[in-house]
Amino acid sequence: MSRLSKVFKDSAKIAYLTAGDGGEKSIDYFLALAKGGANVLEIGIPFSDPVADGPSIQLAMERALSTGTNIDEVLKLVAGVRARTDAAIIIFTYYNPIFHDLENFLKKIKDAGADGVLVVDLPFEENENLRFLCNKLDLAPIMVASPSTPLERVKLLSENSSGFLYYACRKGTTGVKSDLPEDIPQQIKLVKEHSSLPVAVGFGVSNSDMVKKLLSIADGCVIGSYFVNAIANGKTPHELEIMAKEVFNVIPD
């Protein structure tokens, strides 16, 4: 059974950070999230034009790029994280940094220890080669749906991907929110009825009450900007671990 399959036997607690944000401590921040209860780590490859991301992650990518973080550095980080945790690893990227050498890139992230890849700006109609290569390499190609995605398309996406379906529960870009959309239970019910895969919900998740609610109606939740902001505000890896335990409702040691 794959690491992702094992995670979704219970509930997936997915945490995102941008690779290289935090400089030399970047790997320690990812490991802190795993110690804090995240059983899936979403490792973002920094890109100069992250159109799907809000200000927090845009700034994180700028910080990472300013310190020279590139694909090779990301691969080293992934390997370093994999050596020290059994958490599943998803690579989050835009298509521009990887399209020129896609198969080699996918081979390298697989060898480094990744379990899946999410190419956020590559439409389904243009990702056949990505899906073929991922299936060949036993990597999960993760697809994204949103409130504006027709339910028949939700079905199509889930039937042609693996691991889980990432449901962005709001329109627009990423960023911390104080609560969930009022109709989130209805949204998730419909999506799950049309998805053959587990459904993990993200975009704006930032407190333990939101996590509890999502894990009662979905198969997983995704937290990104909340943790990214902590690094921007100077939190140490240990402080990030405590934050993760609090938001993921993990009983302290």
Structural account:
The protein has helices at residues 3-7, 26-35, 55-66, 71-82, 102-112, 128-137, 151-159, 184-194, 208-217, 225-232, 237-247; strands at 12-18, 40-44, 88-93, 116-119, 140-141, 143-145, 165-168, 199-202, 220-223. The chain has one domain (3-247): TIM Barrel, CATH 3.20.20.70. By secondary structure, it is of the alpha/beta class. Helix 2 (26-35) runs parallel beside helix 4 and helix 5 runs parallel beside helix 6. A nine-stranded parallel beta sheet has the order 5-4-3-2-1-9-8-7-6. The protein is built from eleven helices and nine strands. Strand 4 (116-119), helix 6 (128-137) and strand 5 form a beta-alpha-beta unit.
Mean pLDDT: 94
Q: What distance separates the N and C termini?
A: 29 Å
Architecture (CATH level 2) name: Alpha-Beta Barrel
Oligomer: single chain
The number of distinct helices, counting runs of at least 4 residues, comes to: 11
**Helical fraction:** 40-55%
The CATH C-level name is Alpha Beta
Strand order of the largest sheet: 5-4-3-2-1-9-8-7-6
Instruction: Give the overall shape.
Output: globular
Poorly predicted runs: none
Number of domains: 1
Number of strands: 9
Helix vs. strand class: alpha/beta
